[in-house]
Amino acid sequence: MVWLKNRQAEINNNLAKNKLLITEKNKTYLKKLSFLQELEDKQASILDEFKKLEAGLQNSQDFSVDKIAGHLENILVGQDNLLLQIEDIKDLAGLADWKVSLQNIKEQTKSLLSNLKDKPQDKQINWQIEFNQLLKSKDNLVTEINEVKTQSSILKHSVDNLLEINKSLERELAKLQLDLKPATSGEPDQALKKQLEVVLEQIKKQEAISQAISEEMADFNLQEEKIKTNLVTDQQKFRQVQSEFNTKNNQLNEIKISVARLETKKEDLEREIEGEASNFILQAEFKEIETALAKQKIANLKNQLSSIGAIDEAVVNEYQEVNERYTFLSKQIEDLQVATSHLEKIIKDLDNSIASQFDEAFFNINKLFINYFKKLFNGGKAELLLDIREVAINPKTEETEEEDVDVQTKKQYGIEILATPPGKKLASINMLSGGEKAMTSIALICAIIANNPSPFVVLDEVDAALDEANSIRLADILHELADKTQFIAITHNRALMHKAKIIYGVTMGDDGISNLLSISFDKADEIAA
CA 384, CA 484: separation in Å to the nearest integer? Predict the structure, then answer.
């Protein structure tokens, strides 16, 4: 657009210069025409003088030589003035008519000279000499008029060239204005500027929309990657916390066992003390026990209690710390279970979305595959089928066969291609020939490209196994898909080359260096011409 605008400004500048030059030439041309008009008037007066002189010679025998001389002097003066004014003119349009008029004057002068020769007077001889000089001056005048005519033709040719250049510039300017589609009213620069502003505004809007879509796609991809990263991180944290929880739980269980043992031992001792105390009370009530024996038993019991000792505070503190750690880990496990539930829901939603998109894409690709298969084979039947199988994740071994272990399975998806060319009854693609397999594969690839177009697709001799008719069908399909995808095909097939816009060829010269040649079919006619 900038180049067109600069080119338009350059053409407008040249056009203005040419118009100014043509205007100056026209002014000079009009000025010369006015001079020619004056010369024509003077020429008419000179012709009148000749006519009067000739009439006097024919009608009067005593027409005096002095009178003739007066007329001739007037004619000579007029001719001199005419000659001076003709020399000042560079551009004349009516020189041909003037030349005829001067030739007439020359003939009239010769006729007058012939009449004067018939008179015997000496003065007539002198006037004859003067008439001969006048005739010479007339011849010189005719020669100069021819030169002026040549200069006029050159100047007129120059003006015509300027006019042709001006018309060419006007045509080019009109073409540029047509290409730029300027407004029908207002100045061309203003219209072009307005149109460029509108186009730039539309481009900015489209770029803004494209940028917004790209940002949304980037945000979506970023969120998806972030969710995946968080999922992996949370799973790692969960495993780490689970491992730590198991370790601490084992430690807690050991501590609980130790505490239970101590409590059991304490209870046993308390029961034993109570039993001994009960026995002592009963014995004190029902029979008399010697005081020394009772004191001895009490002393023994005290010794036993002292041997047991009090509960260690470190054990109590450790128990409290373990209990707090257990409570904290339980809270962490609860949070992780909530996060796991949330992530499982996200995974389930993603699986559902993926399954929905896969089903939709599979349906569209199957439909397009059937269409392209029929185009390539000119008929026949084809279909894509999903092959879903249950595969064991942990298959049984000799060791696990003896044990009753549940085998976990998962679904494994596959695609089965059913293709039946016209005139055949086949059910499996393995029964097709090499060319038929190639065409079936091409139909599937074209279906995938049509469903989700790629910017570039490189085809490396995919038509090597195809004949002329099938190559033409493949070329038609690629030409149809070329609206949204640019194909780069490596081929030796002329049918595929015929549909290409640009052909690249690699040749090797005598020096062993490869040369790359390219031909654009859009410009081939211009190059051939």
Answer: 25
